[in-house]
């Protein structure tokens, strides 16, 4: 059995995660800092290019200094798992459910968060011991999918990813998702107040009771 219950602690502070895709090292660090200051403690950087890996290494180092959790996303191979570990990632995220990647990540000490989009995938992931799952692509699946999956699989804890922003993240959280992952919203000043409201804080990094 492979577990990933560590995410219960990772996501304990806030119901949002930041995804920083293809921004480069400097911009990724700046947007990660915005997320951390807002109260979003967990950041994911997809790793699809050498520049992405450099950005992950830079943000992971800064995250360690601030006590924040930084993971690698779009991890679709065992080689990606190795690269993520070398860059300092603390967890991995995948778009789909690949048990070889899941096992490699767990063996490397990084809890895996695989993507699911069907009841069959959810059931297989749970049978493997994984309770935290990435609902992807969330904007296509919709909040009703989260509600439907909680019927037969009440133990599943979903992180919604794909097409999330300040306007729709709340709907997924109300539907039962544990975490919504936002990306470009963090680079849009007009969305920051809404994100702060979802976090229950004043937008200045002071997190309220949850």
Provide structural commentary.
The chain is an alpha/beta fold and 210 residues long. The chain has a single domain, classed as Aldolase class I (TIM Barrel, Alpha-Beta Barrel), CATH 3.20.20. 43% of the residues lie in helices and 15% in strands. It is built from ten helices and nine strands. The strands form two sheets. The chain has a seven-stranded parallel beta sheet with strand order 3-2-1-9-8-7-6. It has a two-stranded parallel ribbon with strand order 4-5. Helix 9 links the parallel strand 8 and strand 9. Helix 2 packs parallel to helix 3 and helix 3 packs across helix 4. It is globular, with a radius of gyration of 16 Å. The protein starts with 6 loop residues before the first helix and ends in an 11-residue tail after the last helix. The C terminus is likely disordered.
Defining traits:
210 residues, TIM Barrel, 7-stranded parallel β-sheet, 10 helices, 15% strand, disordered C terminus
């Amino acid at each position: 059995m492979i577990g990933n219950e560590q995410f219960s602690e990772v996501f304990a502070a806030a119901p949002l995660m930041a995804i920083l895709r293809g921004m480069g090292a400097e911009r990724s660090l700046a947007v990660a800092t915005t997320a951390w200051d807002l109260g979003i403690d967990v950041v994911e950087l997809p790793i699809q290019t050498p520049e992405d890996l450099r950005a992950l290494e830079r943000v992971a180092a800064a995250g360690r200094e601030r006590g924040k959790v930084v993971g690698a996303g779009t991890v679709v191979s065992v080689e990606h798992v190795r690269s993520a570990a070398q860059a300092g990632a603390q967890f991995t995220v995948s778009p789909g459910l690949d048990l070889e990647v899941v096992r490699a990540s767990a063996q490397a000490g990084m809890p895996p968060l695989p993507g699911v989009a069907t009841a069959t995938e959810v059931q297989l992931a749970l049978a493997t011991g994984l309770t935290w799952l990435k609902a992807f692509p969330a904007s296509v699946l919709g909040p009703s999918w989260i509600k439907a999956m909680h019927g037969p699989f009440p133990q599943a804890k979903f992180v919604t990813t794909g097409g999330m922003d300040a306007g729709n993240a709340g709907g997924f959280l109300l539907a039962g998702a544990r975490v919504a992952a936002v990306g470009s919203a963090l680079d849009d000043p007009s969305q920051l107040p809404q994100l702060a409201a979802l976090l229950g804080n004043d937008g200045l990094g002071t997190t309220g009771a949850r």
